[in-house]
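Q&A log
Question type: sequence-to-structure
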Amino acid sequence: MSPVRKKESKSLPMKTSSTDIGYEKRWYLGDFRTQSNGASSKRLIFQYYFFMQYVVHAYDHTDADAYDRRMAVRPAHFDTVRDLKAKGQFIIGGALLDPDGKMIGSMLVVEFETEEALQQWLQREPYLIGNVWDNVDIKPFRKADV
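Response status: OK
Response body:
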């Protein structure tokens, strides 16, 4: 049997495995034709997608113009993060603050299928392009199953 077309796609989150790599099970209703008589039948098709979560700690430059640069590109940064969220790649994030409540950096937990996808996001991240972030530390992240 070979699929004729993909009709519908839905995402069903599955429990994260006990390794560093999680998975998601997605399904779609496929229209298949049997080879013997050409009749059409519906089958539920499952595909597994693997992904990795990362925690990003990014600290701002400390020069006199750093805050102004941050505020100038902040709307573009938010647009980028909203795009990640729409794709299911943004888990949580926000500003890092000093004891006085001043923004000094950012923290994000993001999710990508590949290291290359992570690098592509970083290449278009406005806070990096706009010279806001100075020191960026990225580590693989695994949510505790408690």
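Response note: Residues 1-35 have pLDDT under 50 and may be disordered.
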